[in-house]
Specification:
Shape: elongated
Number of domains: 1
Strand content: over 45%
Strand order of the largest sheet: 2-3-1-4
CATH class: Alpha Beta
CATH architecture: 2-Layer Sandwich
Helix content: 25-40%
Number of strands: 4
Order of helices and strands: EHEEHE
Largest sheet: 4 strands, antiparallel
Structural class: alpha+beta
Oligomer: single chain
Length: 86
């Protein structure tokens, strides 16, 4: 199996989606390398950056689930780092 390193940048404008977002991230927790969250209170949004190391299809599924949440925007940047994992 091959995994790829990627970063998913997330902006949460609707805080009512935060609980579902955290649930999704927990579901994919084994692939998450690290996570950083910044509340931007002046604008009423939260900015989250999630680094992952996962198979391409898993990254796409995670990004897709995040993007379907109301008031949540997510964009994924992929590295060229590909690892073979047994």
């Amino acid at each position: 199996m091959e995994t790829r390193v990627a970063v998913i940048s997330i902006i949460v404008e609707n805080t009512e989606s935060a609980e579902r977002l955290n649930s999704i991230l927990h579901e994919y927790g084994r692939y998450i390398i690290g996570r950083m969250g910044l509340p931007y209170r002046e604008c009423g949004i939260n900015i989250i950056c999630v680094a992952v190391d996962a198979p391409q299809d898993v990254i796409s599924a995670l990004s897709g689930k995040i993007g379907r949440l109301p008031g949540v925007t997510g964009k994924t940047a992929y590295s060229n780092v590909i690892r073979k994992v047994d």
